[in-house]
Specification:
Layout lengths: L12 H11 L3 H23 L2 H18 L9 H23 L2 E6 L9 E6 L7 H25 L7 H11 L4 H8 L3 H15 L4 H8 L7
Helix pairs in contact: 1-2, 2-3, 2-4, 3-4, 6-9, 7-8, 8-9
Length: 223
């Protein structure tokens, strides 16, 4: 982007007189200052924030400050650069505030626990939003997050460790599948399913499918 801004040139007598009137509290003289320098201020603010509407807001917010502090200006020839610095500072403050507000979030839902809705919340306070590729990756990782959560809950409940295969089979039991259906799902013989269940019962110290599920999954099981 190429922006041309006039340099600080000495003010002519008429301009200097108007400045003195503005310094004395003449609002009409200050209105002339606003009309004369707003464009240059807006162009600098646009460079700072990169957004035309926000640049205009920064200039509008700068004028009350300029009006209040105009009496501090000692060199009338520096009026333009002084106003631009006020507007640029305002633009930088607005840009920082915008970055703080632009928190990018993405939620990964977890299995519910009673009436409690649980999720993993990831966020970025600065920079770009999450891409579709990143969102897809988190979706693919969700089963692993859930497994980590369930393992943590089993440890807290002091549930004996089960093998990955035993947990896979027991989840199918929890979902209401019969031994025959489980055998088809896992591509094993039905007798293998029964043997796995016997080992699970022994490790958990239970004697039924219902007790095994309740012991292995102490929290609500639904995903």
């Amino acid at each position: 982007m190429s922006i041309a801004i006039a340099s600080d040139a000495p003010l002519g007598i008429t301009h200097e007189e108007r400045l003195q009137r503005a310094l004395a509290g003449d609002e009409s003289a200050f209105a002339w200052i606003v009309e004369t320098f707003s464009s240059d201020m807006a162009q600098v603010c646009l460079v700072v924030v990169g957004d035309l509407d926000m640049a205009d807001e920064a200039v509008a917010a700068a004028w009350p400050s300029a009006w209040r502090t105009l009496g501090r200006l000692r060199d009338p020839e520096r009026l333009r650069s002084w106003l631009i610095s006020i507007a640029a500072n305002q633009a930088r403050q607005m840009a920082r505030a915008r970055r703080r507000r632009m928190v990018r979030e993405i939620a990964v839902p977890l299995p519910v626990r009673g009436a409690e809705d649980r999720r993993i919340l990831l966020f970025r306070a600065t920079g770009r939003d999450f891409t579709e590729r990143e969102r897809l990756l988190l979706t693919m990782l969700r089963p692993h997050f859930i497994e980590v959560l369930r393992a943590h809950e089993r440890r807290r409940a002091r549930v004996p460790d089960l093998t990955t295969r035993q947990l896979q089979l027991l989840r199918l039991v929890a979902d209401g599948h019969s031994n025959t259906q489980i055998a088809h799902r896992l591509f094993v013989a039905e007798g293998t399913v029964r043997k796995h269940l016997e080992n699970i019962y022994e490790r958990l110290g239970v004697t039924s499918r219902t007790a095994a599920v309740a012991t292995a999954f102490p929290r609500t099981h639904s995903a």
